[in-house]
Structures are given as structure tokens and as C-alpha cells.
Amino acid sequence: MPHWQAGMGLRDTFKTPPTGLCESCAWVRRIENDRGSVFLLCRRALTDSGYPKYPRLPVLRCPGHEPAPSPAAPTEK
């Protein structure tokens, strides 16, 4: 099976590498530059030097990880 399909753009042919815990953390901020590169900023690093500003991925263990709140389900009227 090919890793790409007809009609897919170049960016769609590559899978996004796993980010580990950062993907679900309340402290993460996704930064995208003009060229399309994506970085994950750990906002804990802004006030605590024990955390890297841009952690090496995937992060498998982190004492500061806090699950991000799930989006609220839409209410029916």
C-alpha cells in the first residue's frame, strides 16, 4: 500500500510525529511559523526554569502535565 494517494498534497503525505503528553496538556501552545513548521511551546517554562521552553518530542513523562479540559458539548435548545 503506498504512503500517498492521488489528490493528496505534499504536506498530507507525511504523518505528524507523535508528541506524547504535550498533545493533551493544558500548558501547551502550538506555534506555527511562516514556512509551516510547527513547534510546541511549554508555557510552564515561562515561569519555571525546570521545564524546557520547546521540549524534545515525544514527551513520555512530565511532572507538570495537566490534561487539557475537553471542549464542552453543545447544548440543545
Which residues form runs of ≥5 with pLDDT under 50? 1-10
User: What is the overall shape?
Assistant: globular
Oligomerization: single chain
**What's the Cα radius of gyration?**
16 Å
Main sheet: strands, sense, barrel: 2 strands, antiparallel
- Widest beta sheet: strand line-up: 1-2
Count the E strands.
2
Overall pLDDT score: 81
How far apart are the first and last residues' alpha carbons, in Å?
A: 46 Å
Helix proportion of residues, in percent? under 10%
Task: Describe this entry's structure for a reader.
There is one protein chain. With 77 residues, the chain is mostly beta strands. It is 0% helix and 13% strand. It has no helices and two strands. The radius of gyration is 16 Å and the shape is globular. It starts with 27 loop residues before the first strand and ends in a 35-residue tail after the last strand.
